[in-house]
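G., the chain you wanted modeled:
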Amino acid sequence: MINAYYQGEFLAAEEIQISAGDRSYRYGDGLIETILFRNGRLFRAKQHFKRLLNGAELLKISGASDPDYLIALCRELIKRSGQTSGICRLQLSRGNQQGGLIPAKSDKGSLCIILGDEVKRQNTAFRLMLATSVSVYSKDPLLQIKSANRLPWILARQEATESGYDDALLTNEYGRITESSVANVFWLKDSIVHTPPISEGLLPGVGRETVIELLKQSAMSLEEAPATIDAILNADSVFLSIASRGILPVSEIKSQSFQVPEVVDNLSNQYQALIQKETQS
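Predicted structure as tokens:
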């Protein structure tokens, strides 16, 4: 079954042969994006590919320069696969290069796209902890792209799983919360929604951008502000955002319980309605 694209070929994912010299495999020298699709239509593809191309510019990786071409490529793969709904996973690597850490000059990276099943939203609110195994440095430019090296976030998620939590919140050098291992974070206090600014050291998530867009269309107020641990623990409500799943309510952080108010439920419903609108056939 065709469910992948690699270096100009549409094929089955298990037929892909990536060289041991591929720099994404060897060093995490590449970029990734995960895009939801339903009814054969991609959700927020242009926003995902804008971030991918920004990352490619920062890392000086060639091989992808036109969002419309990438969208057309994903649509063609979805059409050939016969799969109507799921996840489209892209990985752009600097490519196969021999030698050490310093990359050779190249005018062509390698692009891999694999289709997978949609990750369903869990029925219960998230229980979170604060990661102690890893922290981030807010000035690190790699935090603002989705690189193929996910080790800090893997360590945080691993710690959460081993401790019996759904996810972990990371902090920066100031001890302020930035994001979770897989999502951006928001909190509600006195009818105002807050979220950390990108300058705190977090990924500019497509889900985050979508929530901000929805808030601006509503009567709710939004404020970008550093997220101190006290601010989060004293919030009226906390929720996460992931582009492919929407808004994920939080029920607990460090044994502090949170309710899911109607305004958060309404915002979540608006997000799901937007997904339906943008992916309807």
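The mean pLDDT is 95.

Shout if anything looks off.
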